[in-house]
Amino acid sequence: MSLLSLRSLRFLRSHAAVVARPALAVEMKLGLIILVFLVLGGCASIEAKSFEQFAQAARQIDQGADAVVANNEQWAVERFRTSLREAVAGEAEPMQAALLADQLLLERDRVNTPFGWTAGEQPLFTTSRAFRIAVGEFNNMLIEYAQGLHLLSTAGLTQAEYDALAQRLNGNLSEALGALGTLGGENPESQILMMQLRERFGEREQAIFSTAATELFHQYLTRRQRKELRKALQANALMVEQFAAYGQLAMQIAALQLHREYGERSREMVVALAQSSNPIPKLEEVLALNERYIVLLASLETLYTAYGELPAAHAGLAQSVEDPQFDLGSVRQLVERGRDLQKLAQRLEDAAAAEPESP
After folding, report:
1. Please, which residues bridge with residue 107 across strands?
2. Better-predicted residue by pLDDT, 84 or 144
3. What is the pLDDT of residues 296-322, one digit of tens each?
4. How far is CA 343 from CA 31, 299, 337, in A?
5. Are strands 106-108 and 117-119 parallel, antiparallel or unpaired?
6. What's the mean pLDDT in 218-228?
7. Measured at the alpha carbon of residue 46, what is the angle toward residues 167 and 165, in degrees to the nearest 5?
8. What is the DSSP string of 276-303?
């Protein structure tokens, strides 16, 4: 073989090796990418918009509920003041006047705390005020739970932060449910509703984050696999169902309070209307009161429905974690319920503004 032929052969072999090395490198990179995708594909980012919408709806539920129970508290306070004025003017029955005196004079609480107070007879409005506080705490837990899910979906929560959140919310829920049960138990109808609810859930764990779900949330926070977040959310479905049922119970208790306060208020107005020499202004007061009452009942019904829709929306979030194309109609429906509450809140403001001020 000639020298030229040997040089040509060496050149061809060298060129073939140079060409083969990049091709092999490309194949190795592709293989590595495929392997990473197969192993870590579940760690792909989660669409968090629906979780944020769920949290926004929770905030709107809280605002709507507070507007109604605040109204109940206001009416109860005004009724108490009216009763006091009647007692001072000598218009109340002797027994009622004595009862009001016991409610009016406060005493030091010698049993529970050195900073507390009590009365011989608790003023009527204190139950409505305590109920408003309990409902507010209850809904704050819903907001924190929804915000916690949003942080979980965006990898914005560590395991230590999750544990602190779960421990706090679970403890607060037990206290809030106890308060709702005590405050609602004064009404026989409320007692029946609560008994039915306890029969429905039996001895089920009272928590926002169940023990089983917490173990799965821990796994998710360790490996950040989407399927583990889905499983954790689904394992917590019963807790959300229970929470929603108690939210509906709270709105039923609020409706009973509203009926009672409206009944007292409207009867006084009708008596004043019958005795007035100028009935037109009194008639307008009754009509304004009726409008406010109707809007309040509509708000409570909407809130009752919104609580009932929480489990389906929560289930939709779980399904969408691994299936971005899943139709989240249940979440959109809950968001729409929040918009309804905003509209009703505006109507309530308008109705309250139209109602003459109490003397």
Report:
1. 118
2. 144
3. 999 999 999 999 999 999 999 999 998
4. 56, 10, 10
5. antiparallel
6. 93
7. 10
8. -SSHHHHHHHHHHHHHHHHHHHHHHHHH
